[in-house]
Write a structure and sequence with these properties.
- By secondary structure, the protein is α/β, with parallel strands linked by helices.
- Helix content is about 30%, strand content about 20%.
- The protein is globular and about 65 Å long.
- The two termini are about 20 Å apart.
- About 5% of the residues have low confidence.
Length: about 300
């Protein structure tokens, strides 16, 4: 099946480029973990796709940094072409991770709260929006920065109830936050180190912290007292493993659920910067800079 690709994001491939990801392709390999493509031709045995359809990779590591490719039908998932292009290009990893973490670890009810760090990341922005669609309240932790008010305003425009810095999270005044909202039963950790320890301190008794990243490159440290006296649970999440444990039809169902949220205006693409493929080096450099909340997208 011939496909023409465009708008694959660059950021989700950084760990793979460094050789630090859980799944590494055999070399030589084409980079790129996400993207959306348009089918331009199909073979005689293809029944589920036709020219003009939009498709995304069914699994990680397909190699999306290219203008054309030939794939089997099973390697692709059709997505509706009536959603924004950037939403389609960034659909297959971060929003899926956000949705599954919100749904699979705690039986949250409307009005319950969730706390997360790295809230301006692609997953973090998706968590904010999906949580708002589910009537969940979010406490969103970010690193302090010169334009903190600008970032706060953006996250609140997505549905964030509270946006606080790592420093504010450590202050005793944090307990005042829970005078008018329940303590979170779910914490989502993408940082590790001290940040994850502080998330644990805010959890309600019996709550769960799910770790899906380690931006600080530091271990998660949980105090013995929190584990014993608050009976907290530490879990991990990796979308690639979730896919292995579930059928392709279940992943397709997840994608369509997210597409419905996009159509309803409840889920938008993360802040993106589009960069022509030939300027990939500029995109890579931008993705490595601190305090960058924009996802670098290669266009073709």
């Amino acid at each position: 099946m011939n496909t023409k690709e465009y708008c694959p994001p660059i950021q989700t491939s950084k760990l793979r480029l460094r050789g630090n990801y859980g799944l590494l392709p055999e070399l030589p390999a084409v980079g790129g973990n996400e993207g959306v493509a348009q089918v331009v031709a199909v073979g005689s045995s293809v029944t589920g796709l036709k020219p003009g359809d939009w498709v995304i990779p069914a699994n990680a590591g397909l190699g999306t940094w290219r203008t054309e490719a030939v794939f089997s039908e099973e390697a692709l998932i059709q997505v509706p072409s009536d959603i924004p292009l950037e939403s389609a290009a960034t659909l297959g990893v971060n929003p899926c991770t956000a949705y599954r973490m919100l749904m699979d670890f705690e039986q949250l009810q409307p009005g319950d709260s969730v706390i997360q760090n790295a809230s301006n990341s692609g997953v973090g922005q998706a968590v904010i929006q999906i949580a708002a669609a589910l009537d969940l309240r979010t406490i969103n932790v970010v690193r302090d920065r010169p334009d903190i008010q600008k970032l706060t305003d953006r996250l609140k425009s997505l549905g964030a109830e509270h946006v606080i810095t790592e420093e504010e999270l450590r202050r005793p005044e944090m307990k005042n936050l829970f005078k008018d909202m329940p303590q979170p039963r779910l914490a989502l950790n993408c940082v590790g180190g001290k940040s994850s320890t502080e998330l644990l301190r805010q959890l309600a008794r019996g709550g769960t912290m799910v770790t899906y990243g380690g931006m600080a490159k530091q271990p998660v440290i949980a105090s013995v007292s929190l584990l014993i006296f608050k009976d907290l649970k530490l879990r991990g999440f990796w979308l690639s493993q979730w896919k292995k444990d579930h059928s392709p039809d279940q992943f397709k169902e997840l994608i369509l659920t997210l597409c419905d949220l996009i159509r309803q205006g409840q889920l938008t693409a993360p802040a993106c910067s589009q960069v022509p493929l030939q300027d990939y080096q500029r995109a890579l450099e931008a993705s490595m800079k601190p305090f960058v909340s924009s996802k670098q997208i290669l266009t073709m």
